[in-house]
Amino acid sequence: MKIRLLVRCLWLLAWLFPRLAMAESVIEGQVALPKHHATMVVNQRYEIVAKGGIIAVNPPLAVVYLEGTFPKPAVLPVRQMEQKNLAFVPTLMAVQTGTKVEFPNLDDTYHSIFSYSAAKRFDLGRYRSDEKPVPAQVFDVAGLVTLRCDIHEHMRALILVLDTPHFVVTDADGRYRLEGVPPGRYVLKAWLDSRTVKSQPVEVTESATVHADFQ
User: Fold this and answer.
1) Residue 16 domain-assigned?
2) Half-sphere exposure for 65 (CA within 13 Å, toward CB)
3) Rg of the chain's alpha carbons, rounded to an integer?
4) Given phi > 0 = left and psi -120 to 50 = alpha, else beta, which region is 120?
């Protein structure tokens, strides 16, 4: 009886899995990124600049994401925002609401990470790499969070908290690829800075690759 039930379950999975795989599609394209901003900070791969109240990544990057109604995963992955070589790594991170983020210190010095952003306020205090790990922070409100170090003034990073599981950070040339997108009609958005979000409608069909650029 158990063997017969197991065979039926395996047959059902073999029938269902290809159809689930076929249902997912891809959205890819390129975002026209702005030019680099002038900066006085050297020896940093990325940094955060603020000009006229606009917060952006320098050199520029974008976050591309889908707006729509999606089921929330039962378990969200824990992300890490490292402190390494006196910089945040990565400098721009996108997470889904409810995600926990850890802040490991990989430097041989103290760091003191904090945020005064409306979407997430916290202060981890001073800690070294060999001390007790600080607790992970839950980012449960959508919005932009600016991270700073109270000891190293030049250290900045951004966490963009989104109400969607479908998002990706572009490469340095603005290219992106969103995989595992279910068929449907959505609004595709590209976040470039704290005041610039471009959008366009997209329709995704089963097992399709949709090309969408932001000029």
Assistant:
1) no
2) 22
3) 20
4) beta
Strands 175-181, 25-30: pairing is: antiparallel
- For 41-53, b/e burial (b = at least 16 CB within 10 A) is eeebebbbbeeee
Task: Judge whether residue 211 has pLDDT over 70.
Answer: yes
pTM of the complete model:
0.85
For 40-55, the pLDDT digits (tens) are 444 455 689 988 889 9
**Residues of the domain holding 131:** 26-211
Domain with residue 89: its CATH number is: 2.60.40.420
Let me know: does 169 contact 62? Beta carbons within 8 Å: yes
Which residues on neighbouring strands pair with residue 162, listed in sequence order?
96
Structure tokens at 17: 């899995």
| Total number of residues shown for the chain | 215
Residue 82 lies in a domain: yes
Reported as a single tens digit per residue, the pLDDT across 139-156 is 999 999 999 999 999 999
**pLDDT (tens digit per residue) in 112-138:** 999 999 999 999 999 999 987 788 999
Q: How far apart, in whole angstroms, are the C-alpha atoms of residue 186 and residue 104?
A: 36
- Provide the pLDDT for residue 15: 45
Please name the helix (run of DSSP H) or strand (run of DSSP E) that holds residue 196, with its range, or none.
Answer: strand 196-204
The count of domains in the chain is 1
In this structure, what DSSP letter does residue 77 have?
P
